[in-house]
Amino acid sequence: MSEFTNVAEIFGSNVFNDAVMQERLPKKVYKELKKTIEEGKELDLATADVIAHEMKEWAIEKGATHYTHWFQPLTGVTAEKHDSFISAPDKNGKVLMSFSGKELIKGEPDASSFPSGGLRATFEARGYTAWDCTSPAFVRQDAAGATLCIPTAFCSYTGEALDQKTPLLRSMEAINTEALRLLRLFGNTTSRRVTPSVGPEQEYFLVDKAKYLQRKDLIYTGRTLFGAMPPKGQELDDHYFGNIRQRIAAFMKEVNEELWKLGVTAKTQHNEVAPAQHELAPIYAECNVAVDHNQIVMKTLKMVACRHGLQCLLHEKPFAGVNGSGKHNNWSITTDDGINLLDPGTTPHENIQFLLVLACILKAVDTHVDLLRESAADVGNDHRLGANEAPPAIISVFLGEQLEDVVEQLISTGEATHSLKGGKLETGVKTLPDLTKDATDRNRTSPFAFTGNKFEFRMVGSKDSIAAPNIVLNTIVAEAFAEASDVLEKAEDFDLAVHDLIKKYLTEHQRIVFNGNGYSDAWVEEAERRGLPNIKSMVDAIPALTTDKAIGLFEKFHVFTKAELESRAEIQYETYAKAINIEAKAMIDIASKQIIPAVIKYTKSLADTVNSVTAAGAEASVQSELLAETSGLLSDTKVALQKLMDLDKKSEEVPEGTELAHYFHEEIVPAMAELRAPVDALEMIVDKEMWPMPSYGDLMFEV
Ligand code: ADP
Ligand code: MG
Q1: What is the fold, at CATH topology level, of the domain defined by 576-701?
Q2: Could you say which of 45, 78, 333, 685 is the most buried, measured as most Cβ atoms within 10 Å of its Cβ?
Q3: Domains of the chain by residue range
Q4: Contact between 195 and 287 (Cβ < 8 Å)
């Protein structure tokens, strides 16, 4: 029996949260801080000093020896530089533990080694981290001991954002301002703040650590570059929601406990579709907290896996042939007094405010599909988007029967008179209770689905930060709200104007609504007819960041400057080229040093067998055939390897940036596929004992 976990007791025990602050900070200081958090007031240094002192005392009680500004540069992962609390020894040689307000609110890491996309030359190495007091500090316990982590934003000397956090906070401001403006028009005078809520579902794979260590491709690139499918894949659907094996259950238990201590509301866990694939979902939180928490979740999954002799793979496509991993970004907008603007109620046709919000969101998504697509682009996600299991690379919105019906009534007659009802669910079994049925069935194939009282953006990659998609969502919806308010504030007859605006938006942007099967070929053709873009790769998605439309949007709401957008595009191109270069080099290394030598050994043993069998006077036709087939594939491998090596060498002459990224996408990626094909065929033939690494079967079924 495992030991008893008192969830209520451990939850948030390592977080410097509101309760702790209220308990430990002098009343006046606490009030000042709350003002800063709630109204964005600046914090004075004297107050910061008191908070820093209390935070340090609290952290030391939790065993902390160090503190770090914890930030999210444009690498997709978090960054931290640890400083211990010790100050210079006094004359008796004793050290004191100190932490000042200045150290709390401002850090100065050397920014020169983080991607800046030309925003900052290396000689201008200054970068600043600034405390984001809206996301609570926490103490993380790991092999390094305990560390006080202070969530921060990261900016350059000239104030440009070098991270994910700064634009995210700016986009939250934008949607807050514009949503409040709209609410006031509807007569709401009480709500004081509007915040996007986000609940990201995180998918991941777990493999055995010892086997992982025998796969150089996994070690260097996070995914398998070679690997033949085992006899069994996911065709039986027996893993999804299946029984969780004990080794995995023990892992999940510890992950939950670690997350709960850090105040992360780990809620749902289950096996996913592919063998060895799982999911974890927290309860939704305010957008910036959700972004931080998702980073903590990814880090915790990795850390706890190690303790259990496992390796957690967060890559979007660790294995070809079975499902990849993504993150479903559930998004809604809520007021401080608890109104969810995306809640249609039971009779959506009567809920005019909801219908306007919905129409605005459809308009926003349709107008900026390219930006949303870009926000989900990362190198690994290229394997998923457009492949069979994932939402296709075309963005459309699923509304469900009930809302689609209301929308159609509005477009055709200008009037919506009724809403479809869910009714009773009849199971035909007397002993089962009557269940009320949702008015709409689920749709699993839509990249952007309305699911009751939130939208679920399902394109995001499993490894990627969820900051970018939420920055885009917040900003494009803020823009649509602003444009609606511009019209409505001038209207003489408000009711009539709202009515007309809803009809106008729905009519103009109806093409983005699609309730059918997003995985079908028919949809690809239909989407093309509708003029919806089908952006299949990251390199083709990046230009969306720097169009006049994007610059206009982000500058208007002070989320990104033109320079920041250009730098982000540059970083994306750079990241793409670097990642594929690493994959190509890893492939070359593995093929030359592991696979070809192993196959040569195998052909030698086959040749020896042919010789000795023939010498003994028997026929060796099977062995000879195998030898011929293996040698043929070996020679194909050598040819493909040489081609990849030549192309990779040539990449050194291609100018960096857009051109190099395209070179890797159009020349190197196909050459990698050409090398993989004969190697995977060889894996099916060569004696398992001689194959130099664990197979897909070993990795996925023997965890
Ligand atoms: P699914 O059945 O889609 O897999 P899950 O329970 O795995 O659902 O995840 C749903 C996620 O959506 C959870 O993180 C949940 O907290 C979040 N969520 C629920 N309601 C809202 C809302 N109003 N706004 C944002 N996120 C929400
Ligand atoms: Mg789920």
Answers
A1: Four Helix Bundle (Hemerythrin (Met), subunit A) (1.20.120)
A2: 333
A3: 7-162, 171-225+237-425+434-560, 576-701
A4: yes
